[in-house]
Design brief:
single chain; 381 residues; alpha+beta; Porin; 2 domains; 8-stranded antiparallel β-barrel; 7 helices; 28% helix; 40% strand; elongated
Length: 381
């Protein structure tokens, strides 16, 4: 286009300019003037079209900014209207959404308020506990006593075994079963561990009942012997949460390894024997009573505990804990009226009858605790 215009100017306009200088514009042709005006109009139209096809940098920047502003406004307003509609629909239906969305009339959306975490609230605040246990294991004092219970008439009465028959009406329970009661308090709570104090009371007892009688004789002697032990302990134990990658129980908030130590400031053991008779002479009953060996003694000791426990929240301020533990107890230094309790007081045929009584027991125990804490001031009711 530009090349053609230059050729036209060179062919028609320059000669005109030359002729004008030499001859005073006398020989100017109308045809030449029309050709120049025609190509000048084409040149002007072409220039305007070129400017429209290629706008300047300033125009491009202004258009881009305006488009970006419009797009941002549309994407911002759309979710606000959507959230507002969802919130209004949930409130009209009488339902409370998981997170409350507050939308102002101007279209400004505030931050959502998450639902309360009742699990973390319970496990991260101090709490009390009341529980009961069921234990099964060894108890050497009771085992020694059980070895010495009478099994014949001669062991009870100074009579010929043929005089009366011996029949056990209530045998000794073979198993050593405990039913301890617990009270605990957990004041120190960390991210994955806690330290608690607890106190427990436990009781275990066994008994034997027998009857001495022959079917053809009216004489009858009822014999009863029992051995009882109860104690009180206080201690501290530590929980440490087990990583779920290594051990996990379904539907449980937290599973922990537990280890504890305790002192047993008081433990009491007692043995009692009694007889009742009908149709038997007083001399025989007196002789039998002189053989009875009753005693009562008290001692002290200590213990340890190791196991695993699982905690489950029931509400924002309460929960339940189930544990399985191995418990060891050492008890000794038993004293009675007149001195220390000796092995021969429990079993006259003991290998070391004049030694002081001591006991090392071990128990496997299942424990159930109901735990409850105090609602915090900043928590809504």
């Amino acid at each position: 286009m530009f090349t053609l215009i230059r050729l036209v100017i060179a062919r028609h306009l320059l000669p005109l300019m030359g002729e004008g200088r030499d001859e005073g514009h006398k020989n100017i042709s109308k045809y030449q003037i029309l050709v120049v005006i025609f190509f000048f109009g084409i040149f002007t139209a072409g220039t305007n079209s070129f400017s429209q096809d290629y706008p300047s940098k300033k125009t491009i920047a202004i258009d881009t900014t305006t488009a970006s502003h419009k797009d941002t406004s549309l994407t911002t307003l759309a979710p606000v209207k959507h959230d507002s509609l969802q919130a209004d629909t949930a409130l009209k239906a009488g339902k409370r959404p998981d997170s409350l969305q507050i939308v102002k009339k101007q279209g400004i959306q505030t931050k959502s308020v998450p639902a309360a975490d009742t699990i973390s609230r319970f496990l991260t605040h101090p709490y009390f506990g009341v529980g009961i246990g069921w234990g099964l294991g060894s108890f050497p004092i009771l085992s020694e006593w059980q070895n010495a219970v009478p099994d014949s008439v001669g062991a009870i009465l100074p009579l010929n075994p043929d005089t009366l028959g011996f029949k056990i009406t209530e045998p000794v329970n073979t198993y050593n079963i405990l039913f301890p009661i617990y009270i605990s308090y957990t004041p120190f709570i960390y991210r994955k561990s806690s330290v608690a104090f607890d106190a427990s009371f436990y009781y275990i007892g066994k008994s034997l009942q027998a009857t001495l009688q022959k079917d053809t004789f009216p004489e009858k002697v009822d014999y009863q012997q029992s051995m009882n032990c109860f104690g009180f302990s206080a201690g501290v134990f530590y929980r440490h949460q087990i990583d779920e990658r290594y051990f996990k129980i379904d539907k449980v908030d937290r599973t922990s390894f537990i280890f504890g130590l305790s002192v047993i400031p008081y433990v009491h053991v007692s043995k009692s024997e009694s007889i009742s008779s009908s149709g038997v002479s007083d001399s025989v009953v007196f002789a039998a009573s002189s053989r009875l060996r009753n005693f009562s003694a008290w001692g002290a000791g200590g213990g340890w505990r190791i196991g695993i426990s699982s905690q489950q929240s029931l509400s924002a301020t309460s929960g339940m804990e189930v544990s399985l533990s191995y418990i060891g107890r050492y008890m000794g230094a038993f004293r009675k009226n007149g001195g220390y309790l000796l092995n021969k007081d429990i079993d006259p045929s003991a290998d070391d009858p004049d030694s002081k009584v001591s006991s090392l027991s071990s128990t496997v125990e299942i424990r159930l605790d109901f735990e409850f804490g105090k609602r915090q001031k900043n928590e809504s009711k």
